[in-house]
Amino acid sequence: MTPLPPMPLYDSIRGTIERFGIGDTKLRELAAAGVVESRKFGKKVLISQASMLAHLQSLPARVSAPKPIERAERGRF
Asked: pTM, whole model, 2 decimals?
C-alpha cells in the first residue's frame, strides 16, 4: 500500500474539498464564520488543513444507522 503524501499546512478551497469530501459552499461558510482558519493570498483563499481536521474531529460521531423510511411514507413513484 502506498503511503499518503503529507498534508500541507494550507491548501486551496479545491484541494480542501477534495481532501475532506465536503462541498464548496459549506467550506466557504465555515471559513467566513471563523470555524476554520483561512488566509487570503492574492486572489486565492487558503484553508488551514489543521483547523479543518480539528473541526471535523470535534463533530459528534455517528453511532447508529439511519431509521429506514416506512413504505407508506415513501409515496408513489
From this structure: 0.72
pLDDT recorded at residue 76: 60
Contact between 16 and 27 (Cβ < 8 Å): yes
pLDDT of 44-53, one tens digit each? 999 999 999 9
Residue by residue, what is the 3-state secondary structure of the chain? CCCCCCCCCEEEHHHHHHHHCCCHHHHHHHHHCCCCCEEEECCEEEEEHHHHHHHHHHCCCCCCCCCCCCHHHHCCC
Domain that holds residue 16: 10-57
Q: How far apart are CA 13 and CA 47, in angstroms?
A: 7
Measured CA to CA, the distance from residue 60 to residue 56 in angstroms comes to: 9
What is d(CA 32, CA 49) in angstroms, rounded to the nearest whole number?
Answer: 15
Q: Based on the structure, what is the number of domains in the chain?
A: 1
Examine residue 64 and state whether it is found in any structural domain, yes or no: no
